[in-house]
Every structure is written in structure tokens, then in C-alpha cells.
Amino acid sequence: MARLLFASLLAILIWAASAAADERDSSWIQEADNWRDPEGVLWSNASVLGLRKALEDRVASEAAATRDTGFDAATKLPAYVDENETLDGEGYFAVVGDWGNPWDPGSGRNDGFGQYWGPHWKCSIGWVSGDRCKRGTPDFMRDDMSQLHVSEQMTKFAQKNRLQFIVNVGDSLYPASFNSPTDPMWNKVFESRYPDKSLQIPWLSVLGNHDWGGFDCYMDGSGRLYRADSQINYDTEHDWAWPANKKSRWVLPHPVYNKRINFGNTTIDLFAIDTNWVKIEEPCGLQPSSRLHCDTNKCRAFLNNLGGESWQSLERGLAQSDATWKFVFGHHPISFLGNWHGREKNIIGLLARLNASAYLTGHEHSNHLRWYTQKPGGQAGFDNGDQRPGAVMEIQSGGAGGAISDNPGYRGLNPYGFVAVKVTPNELEVTYVSDQGKYMEPFVVPPPCAQLHNSTCAWTTKPWSNCVEGKRQRLVKCSRGHSAYCANNEKPAAEESCSGPPGPSPDGGRGHVGLVIAIVAFVCVAAAAAAALFYWHRRRTSSRRPPLLEVGAM
Predict the structure, then answer these.
(1) Hey, which end of the chain has fewer CB within 10 Å, N or C?
(2) Residues 318-366: pLDDT tens digits?
(3) What stretches of 12-124 adopt beta strand conformation (E)?
């Protein structure tokens, strides 16, 4: 009994220490007149107070908007699907995220300058200075117009290459999502900024931290976070399936869901997950600037439940999927998913083992390409670097213009932009497109059996030919195109010895047909020659006959 009590007490102490550590990890720490956030970034007290005042003003304006929404249902654009465009097994989709700028780009007044979210917020707290914080300069205008410029480049690409669908990795309206499914901001930041027919295709979406409430906690009496309902209910066809058209192009039936897309015989499975358990200080209202607070334990439990549902969806769905390509998409990058980096539960190991083609993400406001492997020996943590066998690819597309860029992005040329992915039966081509229309050279990604399992794709064979002169042959090909993708799998023999009656040659008897034709031609020529000789001989013989005797009259 004493041992049992001691073990129980020890378990309670470990749980309490773990909970306290989680609380510390998700808390801001005050240092003199400054605050340090959970990522170690220092905020001045003036910035924190300014953000809080801005949130108070936003909540007040939101309440006013609720009384008179002015929503026009006619602005809600549909999605069109034409499966005939991809019957050859090939097609494009785009990845875009962090795009919901609530201000008026190019207006010179209500452009978000001096505010605490949007394309200029880092100027307000002193993290950025110089020309980026001076109205009218090229640097200022690039930030200011970023969402519209990215939309313009998406439209040009879609018109030329015919995008089939879009993966939206979240943060669709700053700072705290939409007020309702009839919020007029839907038209302002989404429908009117991506209006072209080429973008009236399915937008498969997930929820980011700002979609759950940003800096404030929106919780009902049952402990459920409800702010994301505005986006989930904007999708009025939760049972939509490809290749049907859709009344609204917005696709978000639940925070965690799966969809299958078919490009001819090339199949694509997409797994949407919720990753907002990684930074509960935002949707749970734990920041010093937060205006709306809630029960932290209930908030954490709600988000952790979604995290658990996401993990189970991946474990089950990826294992059962027979798709040509499998994509997982969530708002936060792999490096943020701390509790999923352990020995027993490791997201990189799971994605590699179950043949995920790539992880699509955003959150950081730029565009990057990264490769992750689990630590050797199944240890906790991860290594990242260049492409290498066994590495999981992460496509980050968080620079669509909703907030000022965090860094120069992929190859230093993508602070803003989107990512285009070309799907073919055997390879992916990943192209980064900037807000200025600069195209990075496409990056070719092999199938998972080559990329994740060191070129062990399966070889395929055709039936053996008949035995000819002690040999028979067959066609041997790599199932996923290039022979290099099957190189580390034993290649079946293309020829072997055999015994038995003579049969067609390996060319299917085409050689025997030629021989028969030659023989027939020879016979015909010989017959013609014989006939000519016979005719000549008759003429010669007839010319040597004696003349006929004349018979006189009697």
C-alpha cells in the first residue's frame, strides 16, 4: 500500500510539474518595462498597451458591425471543376497562407500604418524602420500591396496553367477571423481580392491561430472555442466531394478532415489537421495584451483534443490511403510541433513511414522549402537540411500578404508569394512564385518510395515471350518512371534461358513474317522468270518450222 501511495504521489508531482512547464512555455514574462513572449522575442510595455487598446477598439467596431452586417450573398463565388482537364494524370494546385489583410491597400489612409496587425505592424512596435515605414516609398508600397500583388500573380499563373484547387494554410483574416458567416469582411478580404474565374476553384482550408481568435479567447459556456464557426459555416456544403462543382469555393467542413482529388488515374489524398495546441497563449487569451480571457484548462483541453484527433486522422488515414500522392496540411510548421517530436510520437517519423508526399504549412510570413528527418535511432527531435533520402519535405507558404513579411524567404526572393505544385503520375514539380512575378526554377520531387525509402520503388514486368533458340525475354520497367527510383530494389531479369518447341521470337513474330514475305516474293519472281523463258522458247521453236506445202489445182 505504501508503494502504491508513493507511486501515486510521484505521478501527481510529475503531472503538476509538466502542467507548470506547459504554462511557463505558453506564458509571457515581464522584464522591467518590457515583456518577453514564449518565443523569446522582447516587446516594449508601450507596444503591449498599444496592442491592447487596438484590440479594444476592434471589439467595439465588431459589435457595431454585428448590428448591421450589410452582407451580400451574391458576392459569394462558386467553385468549378472540370475533370476533363486532368485526364492525362497531370495538373496544378497552389499553396497560399496568411493572406487576410483587413485594411485598404493603396488607399494612403486606412492602410494599417500605425496599427498592430496587417502589412505595417512591425513599424508600430519598432521592429522595422527606414523606408518600409515611410508612406510612398517602394519598400512601403511592396508591403502595403502585398496581398493584391500575390493575388495578381496567382491569377496570371492560374490562367496560363489552369490551377485545379488551392490549399489555404490559414490565418485568413487578421487579427481575429470573421465575426460570422455573413461578415462583410468576407467580400472585402476574400471574394473581391481573388475574383478571377481561374481562381473560382475549391479552396481547401485549415485554421490558423488568428482564425481561432488571435490574441483573445472566444469560449462558450461548455468550454468550446467558437470563433472558427464563422469559417466552418461559410462552407455550406460539408459533404462536398471532387469532382462536383460547389456553390461556394470555400472548403472547411471541420478543423480536421480529409478529401480525395483525382487527376485521371493519379489520385491525391489531402489531410487537413489543426495545430493550434502548439501556442495556446494566443487563442486562450494568455497574452498581456489579451482583452478576452477564459478558463485556461478548458481552452487547453479543447485544443489538445483537436490535436489528438489530428494525430489519429493521420495514423489511420495515411495508413489506409492508396493514393498516388498524400499531402498533410496544417497552419504551424513542423519545427513548432514540439509534443510531436518525441520518441513514441514523432510527426516526421510518422509522415516518412506512411509515405506522406509533403507537409504544407504557413504561419511564418514568408515562403520556404525545408527537409526534415527524425534523429538517428528514433530519438526525440529532428534534423533539417537539404533534400536527402528519408527526408520529409515541408512546403511553407505563409507570405500571401496578410501581414508584413518575417524574412526574405526561399532563396532570398520570396518574402511574399505563393507556391505552385504540378502533380504528375511519377513526380512533383514545386515552383515558388513571388509577388513580383519571379519564378524560381521548379524543384523536382520523386515519389515517396524514392524520396522517403531510398529509391526502393517497385519494378514492373510484362509477360515472357515464347522460347526462341533457348532464350525468352520480357519488358522490365520502374513503376514510377525513372529507373533510378527503383535502383535499390532488386531488378527482375529481362532475359532467361528456356527449353521447349520453337516459338515466336521476342519481337512477337515480326521477324518470321518478314521471312515469309521474302520467300513469297522469291517464288513469285521465279515463276515470272519461268513463264518468260517458256514464252521465249515457244517463239524460237515456231520460227524454225518448215514452210507449208502448197497444194496445186487438180
Answers:
(1) C
(2) 999 999 999 999 999 999 998 899 888 899 999 999 999 999 999 999 9
(3) 29-31, 34-36, 42-44, 91-96
Question: What's the full length of the chain, in residues?
Answer: 554
Contact 153, 199 (CB under 8 A): no
- Residue 330 makes CB contacts below 8 A (sequence gap 6+) with 169, 206, 272, 273, 274, 275, 310, 359, 360, 361
pLDDT in the model for residue 525: 61
Low-confidence ranges of the chain (pLDDT < 50): 1-25, 68, 503, 505-511, 513, 516, 536, 540-554
Q: Are the C-beta atoms of 299 and 280 separated by less than 8 Å?
A: yes
CA nearest to 94, candidates 160, 141, 143, 145: 160
**CB contact at 8 A, 220 and 299:** no
The structure's pTM equals 0.83
Here the cell at position 463 is 509477360
Cα separation of the two ends of the chain: 163
The Cα-based distances of 399 to 396, 419, 461 in angstroms read 9, 10, 46
